[in-house]
Amino acid sequence: MISRIYVMPKDKGTRADSYLIDSKLSLKELTKLANALTNPILEKYYINEPLKVGNFSYAIEIGYKPGVTDNVSHTVKEIATDLLNLKKHTDFQVYTSKILFTSGNKERTEKFALELYNPLIERANIAQIKNGKINFPNKAPKVILEKRKLVVKVPLNVSDEELIKIGTLGIKEGNIRRGPLALDLASMHAIKEYFAKLKRTPTDIELEALAQTWSEHCKHTIFANQIDDIQEGLYKTYIKGATNLIRKQKRERGQQDFCVSVFSDNSGGIIFDKDFLITHKVETHNSPSFLDPFGGAITGIVGVNRDTIGFGLGAKPVANTYGFCFGEPDEKRHLYLDKEQKQKMLLPKRIMDGVIKGINVGGNCSGIPTISGFVKFDERYRGRPLVFAGTVGLIPKKIGARLSHEKKAKPRDCVVIIGGRTGADGIHGATFSSVATDFNSPATAVQIGDPITQKKLSDAIIKEARDMNLYNSITDIGGGGMSSSVAEMAKESGGVKVDLEKVPLKYPGLRPWEIWISESQERMTLAVPKNKIKKLFKLLESREVEATVVGEFTNSGKCVLYYKGKKIMDMDMEFLHNGLPKHHLRTSPPPALADLPLSLARRGARGEVYTKDLENLLGSKNLNGFSFISEQYDHEVQGSSVLKPLSGPGRINTDAQVFRPVLNSNKGVVLSSALYPSYGDISTYDMAACALDTTVRNAVASGGTLSHLAILDNFCWCSSYDKTRLYQLVEAVKACYDYAVGYGTPFISGKDSMFNDFKGYDEKGNPVAISIPPTLLISAIGVVSDFYKVVSPEFKNAGDIIYLLGETHDELGASEYYKMLGEIENNPAPEQARYGASVPKVNLEKNLKTYLALEKAIQKELLNSSLSVTSGGFGIALAKACVGGMLGCKINVESMSAGSNSAMVKLFSESQGRVLVSVPPKNTREFEKIFKDISNARLGTVSKDNKFIITEDNKKIVDSSVKKLYDIYHKFSNSMQ
Amino acid sequence: MKNKKPKIIIMSGYGLNCEEETKFAFDWAGGNADIIHINDLIAKPKMLKEYQILVFPGGFAYGDDTGSGKAYANKFKNHLLKELCEFLSRDTLVIGICNGFQIITNLEIVPGALTYNKNGKFIDRWLDLETRNSTSPWLKGIKKISIPITHGEGRYITNPKEYKTLKKNEQIAFLYAKGDIYKFQNLEHNPNGSQYDIAGVLAYNGRVLGMMPHPEKAIFAHQSPLWYKNKKVSKEGQGLQIFKNGVNYFKDR
User: Which residues are noted in the entry as Mg(2+) 1-binding (chain A) (predicted)?
Assistant: First the structure.
């Protein structure tokens, strides 16, 4: 029987919660449950009777579509089970929804409803309110899967044309295709040959498994294959190559090689102190966030948490990081997946709201501080937002007698799946993210994370089971589902066999191939010795974490799957993991760039515009504060914060953050990140160099040290089969190598997402293709030996002396300033020209000296503030330091070492290697001694008044006020509250 | 009892997540704190007799689904109501912080209720609290402190009649106030919109304290946003006093 409980606020409610309950509960039991769902001070409930509301005309009900993760329903089930003493497998289902009351007419209500729900995952009902009462039909959104053939064979003895179709559109079932395998013809041929040798026809699950294992998402083929004359491929040559060289150099120089576990595990791990390691991993979750922003983002953050829990024997997540690249929030042009315009894509603002909320719920509910992040805007992200999510972990070096970063599944260990159940969610997620978003993007590729199910799992593993030594190996179930996770772990033992019918399901009717590749969240794979099963399961049961033995690790060299006793997959591990044919990728350089348009170049001398320009520039969304995001992310939990996301009375966003993962240690962890997507329009080599330089500089400027700093790369590229895009990729990767080696900062982990392209239709039904600009995020993690010496970026005291470290050159190309001018003057020139051609270059030798000297000055506690100069240049950096401290400044820029004496260059060039510091007068002598041979300029003083004055040649070139700049800086954030 | 460390039980499980730093605070203050999963307490309810202080720490029990604190409180009530009453009948202390406060309002051992912040959003921010209470053991020696809030459902709800009672019985523990942090960053002093500025309440003669702000995240001076302005201060933060008070209540006699 289906019953409905409504719970609504007692006074002036405009909303209600609804719980549809499919059960055999009596009214007495339902009443007991309704009481438990209601706070009598705030709310009242109705059971199986119309909801009584005030003076409204319509009600909108929004609930999930069948099969979409409904976290609240889980909780209600747990409440009911506990409250009513229900047996474990009692027939009891809950479907929750939210109800909103409106006063508009039907048309307006329908339009309003469209703003509230995402038809991909949610359903909306609208009901008229009659006599102050509403009653929605009690229809439960149950998953009913039609009976289908469990396993089908897929003959490959077919034309190439059909093989291509199987590869790109999926296995044919009746008249429809299942969705992309993302296997190219060469791969299909390799598979065909393999099964021809075995003299049998492959099953669907075998093909699906190969597609997952060989996907770009899992194999990173573009980084692995030979490209031009780089035989070993980009990853081995330049990324891992840099790390190997740095480690060797460090050992030769007698410095500490702090790398412990790099590239081999779910996260990268480095030494924290004598007792602990810290780990870091940054993921992207772009395509799911485009379709379902909230679900995509929460799955991203909760998923990367599992990369921490899955590091070594299980690290504790101690910090989250995020990064967002969105289209312009005021974008009004809709995009459609199909020509008929039935599938309307979400606008950037909607995507932004959903993504921000997803990281909010994922991080806050998990009790992990979200301390480090950024947001960038560029209209080219409107067809695919970028959502970066990272997690830092902490793990003791040793667990008992074992080194914590080593793990190995042994033959005869049980394959144990723990955590959430398996459903149809996320099927073809990994292959989907390996192709561009188009009409065939599967809706099931979307999932919603459940942070509480995962929190229970996480606590049980890293706070208990790990230290009780109850398993031999652990890994995350993420992209590719069990297919990737179990088969990957099977490499440790040399084989595996699994009985797929044993996998606990969310609802009946899933076929074996779906079970094997489903990307349902909150699951992990463990390898557990038989004699420890009982103890582990007892612990997990008492922590309400579901665990099931689904198979056994072997050393047979094979991955064998059964369903109800029938063998449905039998594949050599060697072919599964290494059978993917190698390609030789080729590149070709993009056309040369045009010069700067005259209208911009001429702008130089008009001094009086700089006040306005600086204020406008500070007001641009890419340079404005984003406290509305920082403040809704818990950054105090775990009690570890040292340098927070917001700093000073003026609450400026910090470029690096410091926290203290071990509460009785004075050591801290510094995090920073940087990216300059617009620089890539001119040169991806310089784009990468600047991102790396800035990340390193941000960390050092706050108190980090080059001697204990590691970095991570996240490449988000577009059209990666295009030779010029590949050329740009190679350039960027080479810069990564050059500067990582130069600074001695090894890469410890990375991730790529190579097809961030949208293909669809605009509002007129014309085909459109939008690619993101090639984007490289570099993140850094380092250890600060004494966090009490950490310096925050804002000015502290009037009278302190302001210095700019480093050199300023005429490098305004692709700068925020030129972008702004381009917009103001509505410059019709092509993109690259609009942005000028003189992109910042990184002078490694000079910057290295500056950074080492800066480290020294910070260790000696000579500075009162230190702010890395990044996007927007010196003018913006100065404004931020003043706003942060709510103090004025009096500056003379004559002594700034600019190659050109143009004030425009001094104020807005984004030359790298620069840091803005303030020094108390009593420390200036010692400070200047340290920087004797390093470019720096003594510019003026911090002032107590509200004035923000920059002069050159006795002329005021900028005359503003701190109060005004404060209002401008927080304008975007305030508009988002 | 003299000089013996009081035993403190800190509840965990189902998404509570501040138990570790809360334990750190109590241990540092001189107590002896254990983190106990609610299911372990349900399995051995007599365990509660060994403790002097019961703590419901912050977190997101059950993801705040169906309303913050409800589900955890229900579970506690279903299995441990008798033991809780027994615990409260002894000369013991209870503290509920943030989600723990939400839980103990749902357990109905402190008055009032907590609901969504007035802007509907989660807020992480430092602010100032003041207390005018002079009788609660938890608040000894405290007048004004600055500590952070991190919550989505922290708006305290009561009614005029109840408020009068709260005032009369000295049951208001903390008010959101204008102090050092307010002067520093000049933001609303009561950002969640709590009625009568109430940030924390007391019951059982001041032995039970429920509060939304997090004293356990303000036990070190460096945790305060004011620290960078003047680092030359004692290493202790203003929140620590609450934990010291809890521990000293048992040590002092």
Answer: 283
